[in-house]
Amino acid sequence: MQHRGSRSSGAPGSESAPRTPDKGIGRRRFLGYLVAAPTLAAAAHLGQSAAAPREAGAVIPSAPEASEISDLNDLMTAAAAPTSNLISVVVNSDGTASFDMPRSESGQGVTTMAAMLIAEELDLPLDKINVTLADARPELVFNQITAGSNTVISTYRPIRIAAAIARGQLLKAAAVELGEDPTRLTSYLGVIKAPDGRTIGYGALAGRAASQQTKQVEVTLKDPSEFTVIGTPRNRIDALAAVTGRKTFAMDLNIPDALPTMICRPPTIKGTPRSVANADEVRQMPGVTDVVQIATGIAVRAKTFGQCIDAVNALDATWNPGTADNESDDTVLDKIRQAESPFTVPKVDPAAEVVEGRFTFYFRNNAALEPNTAVADVRPDRAEIWAPLQTPILCKQRVAKQLGLQEDAVAVHVQQAGGAFGRRLFDDAVIEAVEASRKMGKPVKLMWHRTDECRQGRTHPLCTSRIRASFSGDNVLTFEQRHASVGTDYSHGFGEMLTATNDDDRPPVVRENDKGSAGQVFNLTVNVPYNFGAVTQSLDEVDTYGTFPTGSVRNLVNPDVRTAQELMVDQIAAKMGKDPYQFRREFVDDERLRAVLDKVAAEGEWGREMAHKTAQAITVHKEYKGATACLVEIDCRDETVNRKIRNAVTGPRVTKVVMAIDAGLPVNPRGLEAQMQGGIMDGIAQALTSSLHLRDGVLLEGSWDDYFYTRHWNAPLETRVIVMPPTTGKPGGAGEFGVASPMAAVACAYARATGTIPTSFPINHDTLSFNPKPTVPPLPPSPTNGLTFTY
Amino acid sequence: MRTHTFIVNGERVHVKIEDDVRLLWVLRDVLGITGPKYGCGINVCKACTCHINGKAFNPCSVRVADIKGNDEVTTIEGLPDTVGADLHPMQEAWLERDVAQCGYCQPGQIMAAVAKVRQAREAGHEVNDADIDEIRNICRCGTYARIREAIKEGATKM
Ligand code: FES
Ligand code: FES
Asked: Percent of chain B having pLDDT more than 70?
């Protein structure tokens, strides 16, 4: 590796410093700050806009849809720009750098991404960069929400600016120490070197490079041609902690006296507690210290979680009805059917052929593997919270309001999350922990049981998607999509009180839906990535989001919206007598889509001979300033479908997936690959096996052996993700991006292998493949026969 | 309430607690060994997978009273010591493939993988796709593809 020469303008504030003319041209200078501190601290404003221009299409171009002009990410970054505050990179005397990141890390790899950006601009090895998660910082206003795959898009530039300013300042300090002109110095892996070979480490310079006052400075960022870290595959910075069991989650914290706490929950969705007959008796149970009633149930605190489970199940409670006691899958579907808007585009050509489809997508669970957890220590005059949170500012504000405290009397420490997928946009567990801690007068470590997660947790709303398309000759003339759904809860707004709508004074169970947000999010995230003439898409919602606990599960509406579309695309292609790949190739409205499509077709051997009841399918997806394509092969042969595994759904198996992603500029191709693989597993689950069954106000699922997320036996034997070389030079989102295309491809492959176009998802929903656990007592007791299963 | 004694990660422990408390909570809430994770409490998710006398098991579903005095419990924290190294080869393979995402399931996945490789060998073959298909550990982040590769690679060094 080459030592990197000093960028002439890298020294902040040195306006008179000589420039290297050719390198300065075409580069943009950015403003950041040196922050007054005992050690070197450099900062930048969070927030940038990165709208990608839309490329013209062929065939009959469709008018650009809202999401193509300005997608949700632009709205999120724009919301941040005028009000955002500073994020700082600090250089320490031990030669390390620190960055307190105002985002949540849930496995999506944003801390690694941040460390890479710092490593790039600061010329410091990755393992010398510590990225921690910032406490809630209300002054960041809109800018501490982790959602919509926005993190890399919104932090890509500010983190680099801060790191580049820090490096410039180190060079200046080194120049003084070494008596050299800063432009003659080079920096490499945390060491600054003079032409004569003398060196000085960042650690030794950290104090001397510190600024006495906070001041604005200009800086030039590296040209992408100089990147040695960005765009190279890097392992996660927390990988070692993860494989040694040292990675700490909220549940692993050792906060003094914060004893395990669980909640006895009502038998139906959002029921509320009426009375408890035996609280005193339960308080006498082994290990139990406290039993108190809170808004959502009866909280029990004990020495161990095991004793909490026993105490929860021993409670003799009565309950008020919930919000959906009379609702079942069928009643909700009826309501949705009534809410479905008619198609509006008139038939363009009387000779055109019309295809129509209606698809149902059942409720899906939003839980991560780490259940909802929150540690709360509420005192009369202050409160301290530890929890994995995608919206920490809002949480801080809500807790302050809940307790009647000033915001600054509430400290909210964001913890690493064991998965999030949108679930941790909601602080339900924190609000419960705070109420329990306040009423008990003691710190609590509150955890939801898995069964709580299934039955009272957030869901991806049940919805239908209808499509009507017309085509004539070689042209698709119209393509209309009508999506109708149980309301999605977007009440978190941009993660603070100004835009949040979930902080009214009514109890949390009866909040009204906010149709405005849902419609806006829908319009900003959906598109039809093909030149299909007159395209319209619309959303209708039923129920308030107080009725069902919903949320914007990974990739929001697009897994469903796009699956419906791609199933119709295959039908149109078939009716036109065209190959599914060639048809898409011809109609995609974006060159980047065409490139990823070609890539997976070639690498996945599109069109190869497939055995009876096995098939390939191919789909695309465009979102998050990127493009994906996915080719899958599915095996629907009887011997595969009927594989017997104890307490498991087997069914068709996706045997091979080849996916390509163009993320504009892949900051960490390895991380991107991981995100796509996760999206593939989600897509398989949602197409084939994962759903909740609603019966009379109860979601019947109660564990991972009822709610069939993809398991090892259903994971593809071959999974390949191809990360395309940089295209736009701007990084796009990743965390949510991977679900839509694989889900659609699996659905299409199933249709081609079986000859039956599936119309409801997951395809196994009509068969209840487990015995529902009782709702009273609410938790399944832990078995005692674990030793009979050792292997 | 009696005192239970057994060996965890090579050290003898004594725990005074009710007989029917499941071992997972004794490890996590009493002994502060937090590598084994909770994901269900009913022997389904396998996030809590540890070894007892070298075999995989799920402490969420075993009463502490059923652990005998000479039983050796190994959690992810103690796995490297079983091979006298800083890391077990399976952990190395996990790093090599950058398997973890959120990491929550991974201690359990690694403990299951090590046991699966040994089980396959006892049955006279090297671990294969069919063996891996039998692993019940959930990964909600969907790292299955990398786990599959890492198990095969880790096995070659075990
Ligand atoms: S917590 Fe032990 S198997 Fe799920
Ligand atoms: S890495 Fe998150 S659950 Fe497996």
From this structure: 100
Residues A304 and A187 in one domain: no
What's the B58 CA to ligand 1 centre distance in angstroms?
6
pLDDT of residue A347: 65
For residue A684, tell me if it sits in a domain.
Answer: yes
With a CB cutoff of 8 Å and minimum separation 6, the contacts of A4 are A123, A186, A187, A188, A226, A228
The atom of ligand 2 lying closest to the CA of A368 is 3
- For residue A61, is pLDDT > 50? no
Residues A418 and A475 in one domain: no
Nearest to A243 among B20, B58, B110 (CB): B110
A427/A432 Cα distance (integer angstroms) = 9
Could you say which DSSP state residue A767 is in? S
Q: Is B106 in the pocket of ligand 2 (CB under 6 A)?
A: yes
Q: Is A677 at the interface with chain B, CB within 8 A?
A: yes
Does residue A787 form part of some domain?
A: no
A436 and A489 part of one domain: no
Mean pLDDT (whole number) for A344-368 = 90
Number of domains in chain A: 3
Query: Around Cβ B145, how many Cβ atoms within 10 Å?
Result: 25
In this predicted structure, the answer to whether residue A512 has a pLDDT above a threshold of 50 is no
Instruction: Tell me if chain B has a CB within 8 Å of the CB of A771.
Output: no
Query: Does residue A15 register a pLDDT over 90?
Result: no
Q: What's the CATH number where B87 sits?
A: 1.10.150.120
Instruction: Identify residue A203 by its one-letter amino acid code.
Output: G
What spatial distance separates the first Cα and last Cα of chain A, rounded to whole Å?
A: 48
Token look-up 């450099």 returns A42
B19 lies in which domain range? 2-77
Q: Show the tokens assigned to A345.
A: 């585009």
Cβ atoms of A44 and A619 within 8 Å: the answer is: no
For residues A484 and A568, state if they share a domain: yes
What average pLDDT does range A100-126 have in this prediction? Answer: 95
What's the domain range around A284?
250-322+372-447
- Mutate which of A251, A712, A719 to disrupt the B interface (most B C-beta within 10 Å)? A712
- How big is chain A, counted in residues? 791
**DSSP label at residue A735:** T
Closest partner CB to B22 (pick from A306, A420, A710): A306
- Tens digit of each residue's pLDDT (9 = 90 or more) over A123-182: 999 999 999 999 998 878 777 888 777 888 888 999 999 999 999 999 999 999 999 999
Q: Please say if the pLDDT value at position B92 is more than 80.
A: yes
pTM over 0.90: yes
- How far off is chain B from A785, nearest CA to CA, in Å? 6
**CATH, residue A268:** 3.30.365.10
A269 and A142 within one domain: no
Among the three residues A414, A447, A480, which one is the final residue of a domain in this structure? A447
Chain B residues with CB under 8 Å of A369 CB are 37, 39, 45, 47, 102, 104-105, 138-141
Which residues in B lie closer than 8 A to residue A787 (C-beta atoms)? 52, 57, 62, 66
pLDDT digits (tens, 9 = 90+) for A599-613: 999 999 999 999 999
